[in-house]
């Protein structure tokens, strides 16, 4: 097999019930320019058996099962290290690739981009309900230069927390600092925004990925990740301007309050983890009291309040409503 242009790098853990669908969507489109690298963080289910059934029928799949669980950040790093492609697509282990997409991606890679951000649509866990038809809100493909890190941040940061959208130059990934981002859950964001990129970035407008919503393994830790780790990571980027970072409103009380209420409605914020989070963080007494009160309100009341709020406004947020009605966590 010749050296591939693209390595689809998948970090997986206990996804035996889903990774087969992911691989089916990819394998049907494989060409000699593409390899698949799967790093298994010591799954305890039958993920190995599922993946090896595909490996038997394709010499373009490289499966590595680790002896221990290292975490998503380290496992994606290992997947890139094992890869041989010029570009690495950090694909997820439960979402699927739309049909007839890989040839389009390969054509884009041949145009020498350092980074490609692939748009997605969001569907329910069984893919039957369309929740959002285009996550990255751009009307057409866009190309950003190496001098537009702030613009890249503003356009993509709300979307790029989804690692499956990232296709990155392998040499860039290998060369950049990574260890300081282990444990953040968003190592790809750290690699991209730690300093300016040396080449052009392509933002793809048409959705090429279908995200399986409500299936995250980290859902029980969603509050800690979304309210603590994510803002800390964003604020660490020295080469992104304060104006760009402040546009996210991460430190604004309204944004913070909405996040706390949202995670309480999902059950990932409770009185139990209130002390774990707020004892270690520098919040003022007012926010601590507000968070404590919210942690004690029954989840059913929170859900009713959010749905009533939508009804009063005459607006429906499909993803939030789906979360509340299906108790996805």
Explain the overall architecture.
The chain is of the alpha/beta class and 329 residues long. The chain has 2 domains: 6-212, Spore Coat Polysaccharide Biosynthesis Protein SpsA, Chain A; 219-326, no CATH class. It contains 14 helices and 10 strands. Strands 1, 2, 3, 4, 5, 6, 7, 8, 9 and 10 form a 10-stranded mixed beta sheet that branches. Helix 10 (253-266) packs parallel to helix 12 (285-296) and helix 10 (253-266) packs across helix 13. The longest helix is centred in the C-terminal third of the chain and has 15 residues, at 299-313.
Quickly list its features:
17% strand, Spore Coat Polysaccharide Biosynthesis Protein SpsA, Chain A, alpha/beta, globular, 329 residues
Instruction: Report the mean per-residue pLDDT as an integer.
Output: 91
Please state the structural category. Answer: alpha/beta
> What's the helical proportion of residues?
40-55%
Give unreliable regions as ranges: none
Let me know the largest β-sheet. 10 strands, mixed
Going by CATH, the architecture of the largest domain would be Alpha-Beta Complex
Radius of gyration: 20 Å
Tell me the CATH topology of the largest domain. Spore Coat Polysaccharide Biosynthesis Protein SpsA, Chain A
Number of alpha- plus pi-helical segments: 14
Q: Which superfamily, in CATH terms, is the homologous superfamily of the largest domain?
A: Spore Coat Polysaccharide Biosynthesis Protein SpsA, Chain A
First-last Cα distance: 42 Å
The total strand number stands at 10
SSE order: EHEHEHEEHEEEHEHHEHHHHHHH
